[in-house]
Amino acid sequence: MRDHRGGGRSSARITISRVVGGALAKLALKQLGIEIVAYTSQVGNIALEADYHNYDLAQAETNAVRCPDAIKARQMEELISQVKAEGDTIGGIITCVIKGCPAGFGEPEFGKLHAQLGAAMLSINAVKGFEIGEGFYGATRRGSEQNDVFRTSQQPAAVTTETNHSGGIQGGISNGQDIYFRVAFKPVATLLRQQHTVDIEGNDITFTAQGRHDPCVLPRAVPVVEAMAAMTILDSYLLNKTVKI
Known about the structure:
Largest sheet: 5 strands, antiparallel
Number of strands: 13
Number of helices: 6
Distance between the termini: 47 Å
Radius of gyration: 20 Å
Low-confidence stretches: none
Structural class: alpha+beta
Mean pLDDT: 90
């Protein structure tokens, strides 16, 4: 079913059920000590530093664009307002951090945890890219620079890694470190300005969209990313509980 005002199958309004399911999943994960926080890390060419440790992620809910840096948030808001006034749209990136996920979630072959997270994120409207850990930046590095070296921790006694370039997942399985990834959202396709297109009969025409359309989906997409991450991690937890050898 389509809504000429901007709804229908391609509308982000269909994500409301995902957010409801994600809210329930987050409640269950909270009892396991797992916390999921997402935030807007880039709008257009206005970007935060890649390292999420440099920010108080709780500050993401203090402004309209859900960015943990107040100065960058104002710049993002100004850019979105400018783009809207021009009848245009703009994309960006959402970063998500999962803290407290224990080692052992995921599978080493077809059910890799990062593959599950990637599938979940790429199922969200307007998503065109996904990278986990240092992602594409890591492709420019050498193994001696990128490997997460294992070591034994004394307090508490456990095997951990000195670094976390891989984003908390190695060999498809969570390793107990923070899981972090980035999701790229394209600009909304519907512009409130004249565009060339083709009608139902194949004729070249010009068309100006009407209705309710956001100039940037990033602020609204943050809870959707959190929700999809929560449901994916909870699924992995439940699957992990059922597998016994």
